[in-house]
Amino acid sequence: MKDFKNKVAVITGAANGFGVEFAKECAKREMKIVLADIDSENLKKVDETIKAMGAETLAVTLDVTVYEQVQALADKTIERFGQVDLLFNNAGVVVGGAAWEVPVRDWDWIIGTNVNGLVYGAKAFIPTMLKQDREAYIVNTASVAGLLTSPGLTIYHTTKHAAVALTESMYYDLQAMNSKIKMSVFCPGFVQTDLHNSYRHRPERFAADPQVDPYYATESYKRTLEVARHLIETGMPIDTIANTVFSAIEEEKFYITTHPEYEPIIGLRAKNILEGKNPDVSIFNK
């Protein structure tokens, strides 16, 4: 996809981080933009910013873990703009910790957002894109955490590996039917986003309550929050990310990465799998 003017973009997770940058770049390219997020307060601010750039927008508050709300987003998009050309399945959250320590509600919340959110986006928007029978594009936000593994982020790695596999498999299916829909999977490293503040965006049914589950009061939980904060706040500046992603869309580049320094680790993991070697935590101490 190279021509963006007057086309319609839909962005989930639009109120913070990557979603804001994608929205700004869409506005610069004179697209019509649907902004969707669970954070209604920030969503309103972003909507005002994008409108001030001259773009026509539609802001929708939703929870991507609820399919009916994602389908309603698709319906509102078609009702308002009559088409959808570019979908950023971008909403994502994180909680760190060992698999056996993290409460089940966190597994449900993160899988619901990082995996089911992508599935629901596909189910809600791809049928319309197929009926349009013209060029369309989907970018699923995953992470470099979907291409490698490390200690301390079990749930996040699980969901991001699922996001990469899901996107690859869907793209195979679209190719097999000669669809005009193209796809990319966005796998950034640490970038200065708001991801470490995911807890602010928990739906009430997934609320973290230290009185109900003691994990949220443990030093282990607090340590994972601090590590996440440090890694993200010292990460790559976010202001170049949208250009990287849109360049990849223009080139129809499937894997979008941001940090070449992770490539040896990704390669080592693949090499170890092929050679039958066991995972070895000591590589993280070098």
From TrEMBL:
GO biological process: bile acid metabolic process
Name this protein carries in UniProt: Short-chain dehydrogenase
Keyword Oxidoreductase: yes
CDD domains recorded: SDR_c (cd05233)
InterPro entries (UniProt xref): NAD(P)-bd_dom_sf, SDR_fam
A Pfam entry, by short name: adh_short
Source organism: Clostridium manihotivorum
Keyword vocabulary terms for this entry: Oxidoreductase
Homology family: Belongs to the short-chain dehydrogenases/reductases (SDR) family.
Molecular function per GO: oxidoreductase activity
